[in-house]
Amino acid sequence: MKTITYFITIVFTLLMASSAFAGDIIGNHNLSNDRGLVKVNSVDGYKMSVDIMYATQKGKLIILTGVFADYNSQTRQAVYSEDKYCPDALKLKFQNNGKVVLREAVCAEF
């Protein structure tokens, strides 16, 4: 019985800690070079629901709404992929100051 109680306590503690770290990511974030906005709608495990609006170096306006990215809470990085030919179309790195660094892959065709 003690083993079950310890197990439930550990699992509950881990769940509470992971949701505490996800809470500071949810919301609006400016890109580090002030060319756009990233809105994090939700984080569920390793999946992040985001809206991304930014201007490329070429001057195109890119708007992605309701897309999902793979999120790693340890590194605070998310990766959005378009298809299997471009597995890392956008890389997002969330900084502690509320800014986001966005890197667009060469293979990305927006």
Structure report:
It is a single chain. The chain is of the alpha+beta class and 110 residues long. The chain has one domain (2-104). Helix content is 20%, strand content 45%. The chain has a 7-stranded mixed β-barrel. Strand 1 and strand 2 (36-44) form a beta hairpin. The radius of gyration is 17 Å and the shape is globular. The chain starts with a helix and ends in a 6-residue tail after the last strand.
Task: Jot down its keywords.
110 residues, alpha+beta, 7-stranded mixed beta barrel, 20% helix
User: How many strands, which pairing sense, and closed or not: the largest β-sheet?
Assistant: 7 strands, mixed, barrel
Poorly predicted ranges (pLDDT <50, ≥5 residues)?
A: 5-9, 11-21
Overall tally of structural domains: 1
User: What structural class do helix, strand and pairing data support?
Assistant: alpha+beta
Number of helices: 1
Strand order of the biggest β-sheet: 1-2-3-4-5-6-7
What would the principal axes of the Cα set say about the shape? globular
Fold blueprint:
Layout (H helix, E strand, L loop, with lengths): L1 H22 L3 E5 L4 E9 L2 E9 L5 E12 L4 E4 L9 E5 L4 E6 L6
Parallel strand pairs: 1-7
Antiparallel strand pairs: 1-2, 2-3, 3-4, 4-5, 5-6, 6-7
